[in-house]
């Protein structure tokens, strides 16, 4: 084990995979100088500019050329800089990468990883702060990964690079610097396997990405009020670990889902619907969501904070769920 | 069919205006391919009229010299990316017209298992990485296939064919710039057939068009008569040679005319019949046939190309009509490795 940041853990994963497989390469704007968040720092020195490749500010070409390069036998890791900019390449991702294998009758795979740093971070405002993970879960063909810890960022990125399917890999900007123990060995975390962050008996709180840390803080505070919350980190949203959620809800009878992205049409709705369809009788209280209001993200910190889902919000909702349950 | 000359061969060969060093066998072969493409398209049109083609199909009638002249100059391991109007390109790259026709009819055994149809025709076994239902999208993808060649160190190239309408979408700029910046082995071929759907392309294009735009991005560009198989063939051959020897990307603008409607069901009433009649006089297949006739090739054999192609495609169509629908479980296959696509659906 080595203590590493979330950013460095991903860098270690990429470097290990690039050493293992000469067909893995990364491409994106400013990668030659380490990328805008330093998550590629030092890699060009080891792997050279062809494999840690700079790119013009051509998001559609970064994504589209990577689709072609993946179909032609390489494994590109595509850096989108900000998740928001990936919207300049929606056709390339949604119509091309996600569809090629199916619509060409299985003649090809598109093994590429699309790294999209997302989330609210330091007054980045409406075009540099979004969390759009639920959009991608709606697209057949895509894998959606939302790591919350350094160890997961290593193990999931390595799996993503080895995946034969296109993987939308959403790292949260606000936790680049979060440190944690990261295994030194070749860890490969499977998609669709959640992690129980904390065990509990009264209520299940499901989350992912940076919001997982907020959920944990809420669970801590709930404990002080005598409420035992189980916190589940989904890690990947497609596929997602229904079994883990079901067995937790079986135990607690209460489900609260929290995510940083907008509540309406968010992935929490999918989880709530699925649990209602399959486990209605196990529920002691209607499923609840704690997620963002449907407004763009602001610049001024007090306004930016107005869309944040805080630990207090979660504690309040969880507490009412306990009160009105039986 | 073996190449045979008529009795008057020498006389005509010496007196007519055929190009110097005219390689009769080469163009005899192009003539054959162009006839096969035409026959495939005419048969597809029949199938469309019979109600057996399920989605929209876009015929390349009148543009066969580009398909044959470009794609027959590619090697099997060269990559080809094409357009919604891609049957001819695919056939000339070496795909099997039987599996193509099955795909148009959405039947079992279709090259994409009945999951793609005309606009997604692809045959990876001959390096044909796909038509595309999204105009211009293949420009970036082709640049990327070229990028993979560079990274892997091969001597093959990537070729992208697209329409004159495609130059007005972003991928034209991004993909050509990309190929230029990374000095990739990519041949870009623009089929200037005058139309983008029902719109006269020039009416919606500012400036001088594709060739000048490519040149402004530092990509050597040439313009040819896309209905003249000799011009297309020679230009393509030369450019491919330069690309293979490390010269970076090249662009060729091929002037042509879309003789049929945008789709096989489009009567194209938005243009003058006189213009179409005039354009037929410039039919690339007739032009090639005249050249070969002048070079002394037996007319009977040239006509044979046409009749053989028609009966080949007719037989293919007849077999396709008999084919069953694809196995139903295919609907859920090849989506992705992770997750069950049926979850929560029904
Ligand atoms: C992005 C996108 N916009 C619009 C269309 C609809 N469309 C299909 S073909 C076509 C015309 C394309 O013209 P051109 O590129 O010149 O090719 P041609 O049909 O002439 O071969 C249009 C507008 C599309 N398929 N994709
Ligand atoms: Mg056109």
Blueprint of the fold:
The complex is a heterodimer of chains A (326) and B (346).
Chain A: E1 2-5, H1 6-20, E2 24-27, H2 43-47, E3 52-53, H3 59-71, E4 75-79, H4 90-97, H5 100-103, E5 113-115, H6 133-137, E6 143-145, H7 150-162, E7 167-169, E8 179-182, E9 195-198, E10 203-207, H8 211-224, E11 229-233, E12 236-238, H9 242-252, E13 255-262, H10 267-279, E14 288-292, H11 301-305, H12 311-324
Parallel strand pairs in A: 2-3, 2-4, 4-5, 5-7, 6-7, 10-11, 10-13, 13-14
Antiparallel strand pairs in A: 1-8, 6-12, 9-11
Chain B: H1 9-15, H2 24-49, H3 64-71, E1 79-81, H4 87-92, H5 97-104, H6 137-152, E2 158-163, H7 170-181, E3 186-192, E4 195-196, E5 199-200, H8 210-216, E6 221-225, H9 229-247, E7 250-255, H10 273-280, H11 284-294, H12 299-322
Helix pairs in contact in B: 2-3, 2-11, 2-12, 3-9, 5-12, 6-7
Bound molecules: thiamine diphosphate and magnesium ion.
Residues 163-165, 193, 195-196, 201 of chain B line the site of magnesium ion.
What does this protein structure show overall?
The complex is a heterodimer of chains A (326) and B (346). Chain A has 326 residues and is α/β, with parallel strands linked by helices. Chain A has two domains: 2-182, 3-Layer(aba) Sandwich (Rossmann fold); 195-324, Rossmann fold. Chain A is 37% helix and 18% strand. In chain A, strands 3-2-4-5-7-6-12 form a seven-stranded mixed sheet, sandwiched between helices. Chain A has a five-stranded mixed sheet with strand order 9-11-10-13-14, with helices on both faces. The relative contact order of chain A is 0.12. By secondary structure, chain B is an alpha/beta fold. Chain B has one domain: Thiamin diphosphate (ThDP)-binding fold, Pyr/PP domains (Rossmann fold), CATH 3.40.50.970. Chain B has helices at residues 9-15, 24-49, 64-71, 87-92, 97-104, 137-152, 170-181, 210-216, 229-247, 273-280, 284-294, 299-322, and strands spanning 79-81, 158-163, 186-192, 195-196, 199-200, 221-225, 250-255. In chain B, the strands form two sheets. A five-stranded parallel sheet of chain B has the order 1-2-3-7-6, sandwiched between helices. In chain B, strands 4-5 form a two-stranded antiparallel sheet. In chain B, helix 9 (229-247) links the parallel strand 6 (221-225) and strand 7. Mean pLDDT of chain B is 95; it is low at 8-15. Chains A and B meet through helix 3, helix 4, helix 5 and helix 10 of A and helix 6 and helix 7 of B. The complex binds thiamine diphosphate and magnesium ion (MG). Thiamine diphosphate (TPP) binds at residues 58, 83-85, 133-135, 163-166, 191, 193, 195-197, 201, 258 of chain B.
């Amino acid at each position: 084990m080595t203590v590493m940041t979330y950013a460095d853990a991903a860098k270690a994963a990429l470097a290990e995979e690039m050493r293992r497989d000469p067909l893995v390469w990364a491409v994106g704007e400013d990668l030659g100088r380490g990328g805008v968040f330093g998550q590629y720092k030092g890699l060009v020195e080891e792997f050279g500019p062809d494999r840690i490749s700079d790119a013009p500010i051509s998001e559609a070409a970064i994504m589209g050329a990577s689709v072609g390069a993946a179909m032609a036998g390489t494994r590109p890791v595509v850096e989108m800089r900000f998740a928001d900019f990936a919207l300049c390449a929606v056709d390339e991702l949604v119509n091309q990468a996600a569809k090629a294998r199916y619509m060409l009758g299985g003649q090809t795979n598109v093994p590429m990883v699309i790294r999209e740093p997302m989330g609210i971070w330091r007054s980045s405002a409406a075009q540099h702060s979004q969390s759009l993970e639920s959009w991608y879960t709606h697209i057949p063909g895509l894998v959606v990964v939302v790591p919350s810890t350094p160890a997961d960022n290593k193990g999931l990125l390595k799996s993503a690079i080895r995946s034969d399917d296109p993987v939308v890999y959403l790292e949260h900007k606000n936790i680049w610097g979060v440190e944690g123990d990261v295994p030194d060995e070749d860890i490969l975390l499977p998609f669709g396997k959640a992690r129980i962050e904390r065990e509990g008996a009264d209520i299940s709180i499901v989350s992912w990405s940076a919001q997982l840390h907020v959920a944990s803080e809420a669970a801590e505070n709930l404990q002080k009020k005598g409420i035992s919350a189980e916190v589940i980190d989904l890690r990947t949203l497609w596929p997602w670990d229904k079994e883990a959620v079901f067995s937790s809800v079986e135990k607690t009878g209460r489900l609260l889902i929290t995510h940083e992205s907008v509540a309406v049409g968010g992935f929490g709705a999918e989880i709530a619907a699925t649990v209602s369809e399959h486990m209605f009788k196990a529920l002691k209280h209607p499923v609840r969501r704690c997620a963002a209001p449907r407004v763009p993200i602001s610049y001024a910190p007090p306004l930016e904070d107005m869309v944040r889902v805080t630990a207090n919000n979660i504690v309040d909702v969880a507490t009412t769920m306990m009160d009105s349950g039986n | 069919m073996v190449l045979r000359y008529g009795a008057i061969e020498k006389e005509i060969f010496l007196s007519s205006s055929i190009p110097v060093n005219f390689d009769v066998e080469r163009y005899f072969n192009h003539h054959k391919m162009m006839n096969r493409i035409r026959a495939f398209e005419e048969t597809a049109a029949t199938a469309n009229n019979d109600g057996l083609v399920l989605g929209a199909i876009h015929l390349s009638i009148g543009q066969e010299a580009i398909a044959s002249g470009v794609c027959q100059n590619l090697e099997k391991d060269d990559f080809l990316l094409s357009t919604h109007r891609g049957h001819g390109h695919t056939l000339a790259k070496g795909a099997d017209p039987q599996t193509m026709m099955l795909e148009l009819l959405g039947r079992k055994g279709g090259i994409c298992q009945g999951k793609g149809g005309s606009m997604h025709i692809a045959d990876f076994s001959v390096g044909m990485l796909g038509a595309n239902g999204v105009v211009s999208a293949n420009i970036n993808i082709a640049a990327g296939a070229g990028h993979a060649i560079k990274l892997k160190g091969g001597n093959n190239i990537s070729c992208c064919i697209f329409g004159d309408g495609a130059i007005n979408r972003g991928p034209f700029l991004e993909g050509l710039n990309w190929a230029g910046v990374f000095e990739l082995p990519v041949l870009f071929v623009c089929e200037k057939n005058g139309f983008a759907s029902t719109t006269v392309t020039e009416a919606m294009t500012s400036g001088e068009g594709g060739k000048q735009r490519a040149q402004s991005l530092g990509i050597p560009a040439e313009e040819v008569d896309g209905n003249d198989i000799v011009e297309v063939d020679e230009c393509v051959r030369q450019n491919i040679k330069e690309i293979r020897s490390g010269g970076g990307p090249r662009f060729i603008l091929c002037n042509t005319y879309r003789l049929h409607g945008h789709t096989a069901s489009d009567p194209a009433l938005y243009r003058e019949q006189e213009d179409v009649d005039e354009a037929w006089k410039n039919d690339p297949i007739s032009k090639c046939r005249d050249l070969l006739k002048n070079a002394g090739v037996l007319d009977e054999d040239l006509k044979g190309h046409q009749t053989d192609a028609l009966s080949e495609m007719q037989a293919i169509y007849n077999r396709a009509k008999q084919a069953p629908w694809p196995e139903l479980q295919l609907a859920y296959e090849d989506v992705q490795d992770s997750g069950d696509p049926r979850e929560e659906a029904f």
